[in-house]
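Backbone-to-sequence.
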């Protein structure tokens, strides 16, 4: 049963964000949909990039701001990193085959999910980042049983 678990985590600096992202990497599994919200500069891309590094991506990790999606093969996982900031109308997502990326073998990380609210029928974890002094404040909401398991795993890794 989904309890809509919630965690609020202070991340005093970028190193703390990267450490938590690495812990998340130890917890993710295929089929997850993770959304990342927050103002420009709140650390969404930095967090996802750190998770990808922890999963073993050694090459360049580009922000998908202009391409809308970048995909990576990490260990046994296919990771799709979306940045929907430039989406003006959800219909644009049809042109890039947005729904085709959501397969059971993949993990989807979506920045600016507010731009696709009608297209996102399943979200497991919602990350909301905000600037707090020199650091960040991260709110995580588990929105499914799978999300609850990931949040429980994260709590065990801290």
């Amino acid at each position: 049963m989904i309890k809509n678990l919630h965690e609020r985590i202070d991340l005093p600096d970028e190193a703390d964000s990267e450490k938590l992202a690495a812990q998340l990497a130890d917890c993710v599994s295929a089929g997850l949909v993770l959304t990342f919200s927050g103002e420009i500069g709140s650390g969404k891309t930095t967090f996802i990039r750190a998770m990808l590094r922890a999963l073993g991506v050694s090459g360049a990790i580009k922000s998908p701001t202009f391409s809308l999606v970048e995909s990576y093969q990490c260990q046994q996982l296919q990771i799709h990193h979306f940045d929907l900031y430039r989406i003006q109308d959800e219909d644009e997502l049809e042109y890039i085959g947005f729904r085709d990326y959501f397969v059971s073998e993949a993990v989807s990380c979506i920045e600016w999910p507010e731009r696709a609210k009608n297209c996102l029928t399943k979200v497991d974890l919602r990350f909301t980042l905000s600037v707090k002094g020199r650091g960040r404040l991260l709110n995580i909401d588990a929105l499914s049983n799978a999300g609850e398991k990931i949040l429980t795993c994260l709590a065990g890794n801290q």
